[in-house]
Amino acid sequence: MKKAYFLKRLALIPVTLFGIMALNFIFVQAAPGGPVEQMMMKLDGQSVSATARISGGSGDMARGGDPSSYRGMQGLREEFRQELAVRFGFDKPMWERFVMMMKNYLTFDFGKSFYQDKTVMALIVEKMPVSISLGVFSTLVIYLIAIPLGIRKAVHRGSRFDTISSWALTVSYAAPAFLLAIFLLIVFAGGRYLQWFPLRGLVSDNWNDLSWPMRIADYVWHLILPITAMAAGGIASLAFLTKNAFLDELGKAYCRTAKAKGVGTRGILYGHVFRNAMLIVIAGFPSLLVGMLFGGSVLIEVIFSLDGLGLLGFEAVQNRDYPVIFGTLYLFGLIGLVLNLLNDLVYTLVDPRIHFGARRA
């Protein structure tokens, strides 16, 4: 039954991905200001300044009028608009464009960016290291801090430490990551008070001239503020989850029996409780990682000017760069669905008693 369940889940991945792409394709196409309009607006701006210089200050164009009102430009502009429509593929019906796009995506052919002379896959590969660095290090920081903190809160439940740390974790969880990032910049990156950390980027301008130990130190120095902003909320939620999981296990009969037999607190905690309590914590690792990689880093990359996938997607939405928007959405959607399936696999590996296929409606 377990095998049948996972095969069913595996078969649902392409169906789910198709639905995600179809809905987003419809929504994006319905939004005003597509690539053709974006390009024409840029053309208008360039035409204004160029014509104004040529005309030498006479006529409506010299006064900065709309170039579309110049009769000699009207036919050219409409012809250029049609050329742009053909270039971007908007001369075809929407359903035909979607079918062609999905057919190409089956072979991971995401096309070429409208505004950058690179393929979408090349842009993803180029920006991926930054987002991977943020996602992996943030996830590691979350687990390294939250699990010991949650265990200590469970052991010292009701103590002053538990109360103070709960207040601090609640505040950090409630604060949005982007708001915390701005606060960190103002306080620690030369905004108004301290200038302990760099304002933007992942490395200093003289990074190539540094020795390898200094390069590593410089890289970590640049990562501290972004990772702090990204990890704060995750640390809070995982610490509370760990605390509650350990408290739930500590209240069970087998812990009371072990204590009655003379087993010490440490022996009960790590010899009996740890494996059962860590089930839900470990099983959430894949989803937390993909959230850090493809979700939590978007605004952080924009605020700290980090040239990663989040910034790439943000600029693509601003510029209506459809190949980049849909290419990254397809790839990240596929990765997210696969990792969700891995989540269930991790559950069964950590605790073989779990049988998803045995569930009944």
CATH architecture of the largest domain: Orthogonal Bundle
Coarse shape: globular
Q: Please tally the helical runs, counting DSSP H or I stretches of 4 or more residues.
A: 15
Mean pLDDT across all residues, rounded?
75
Identify low-pLDDT runs: 46-76
User: Taking Cα atoms only, what radius of gyration do you get, to the nearest Å?
Assistant: 27 Å
CATH class category label of the largest domain:
Mainly Alpha
Write the element-wise H/E pattern from the N-terminal end onward. Answer: HHHHHHHHHHHHHHH
Strand count? 0
Enter the CATH topology name of the largest domain: MetI-like fold
Structural class: mainly alpha
Percent helix range: over 70%
In percent terms, what proportion of residues is strand?
under 5%
Structural commentary:
- This protein has 361 residues and is an all-alpha fold.
- The chain has two domains: 90 residues, no CATH class; 239 residues, MetI-like fold (Orthogonal Bundle).
- 75% of the residues lie in helices and 0% in strands.
- It is built from 15 helices and no strands.
- Helix 1 packs antiparallel against helix 15, helix 6 packs across helix 9 and helix 9 packs across helix 11.
- It is globular.
- It starts with a helix and ends in an 11-residue tail after the last helix.
- About 9% of the residues have low confidence.
